[in-house]
Design a protein that fits this description.
Blueprint: E1 2-8, E2 15-22, E3 24-28, H1 31-37, E4 41-47, E5 51-54, E6 59-63, E7 68-73, E8 79-84, E9 93-97, E10 108-113, E11 130-132, H2 134-141
Parallel strand pairs: 3-10, 10-11
Antiparallel strand pairs: 1-2, 2-5, 3-4, 4-9, 6-7, 7-8, 8-9
């Protein structure tokens, strides 16, 4: 089931309205996502045409790899999104951390990637998730860094 969801940063300087938000999200345990979030990135991909931003003047970005960028609020530092910038089959979407949604209830974790980089102390409840190792991600996505840092 998909639905519309609103959200934003901690201070409210950046807000968004997302349409057609899937109820399933994934976790990325790559070293870069872990450093960016302080944990794992728990995120959901929204098609770019289904996302409207308010306060975009408060959004800063960094090209975190040759093929992707990350963004944050310049007022409070909240991490806002991960986006593939390289044209191709993986572009056209924005990965939003589910913690940004005003009401993330009803969402279910359906996948974990870089599972072989997940810290031993992490244990998520639930079963039946799709899991991919770093090598499987490289095979599936093809554009990942050769140094193993992920996105």
């Amino acid at each position: 089931m998909v639905k519309n969801r609103d959200g934003g940063c901690m201070c409210g300087a950046v807000r968004f309205a997302a349409r057609n938000v899937p109820d399933r999200f994934g976790a990325c345990h790559c070293p870069m996502c872990r450093r960016w979030t302080g944990s794992a990135l728990l995120g959901v991909t929204i098609k770019d045409g289904d996302l409207d931003w308010q306060g975009s003047e408060n959004i800063a970005t960094v090209q975190s790899t040759d093929w992707a960028e990350r963004a944050w609020c310049t007022k409070c530092g909240t991490n806002l999104y991960f986006r593939v910038t390289l044209e191709g089959e993986w572009s056209g979407g924005t990965e939003l951390p589910i913690g940004l949604f005003d009401d993330p209830r009803g969402m279910e974790m359906s996948s974990e990637i870089y599972i072989d980089h997940k810290p031993d102390s992490f244990a998520y409840a639930g079963e039946g998730r799709t899991t991919l190792t770093r090598a499987q991600c490289v095979e599936k996505f093809g554009v990942l860094d050769s140094d193993g840092n992920g996105a």
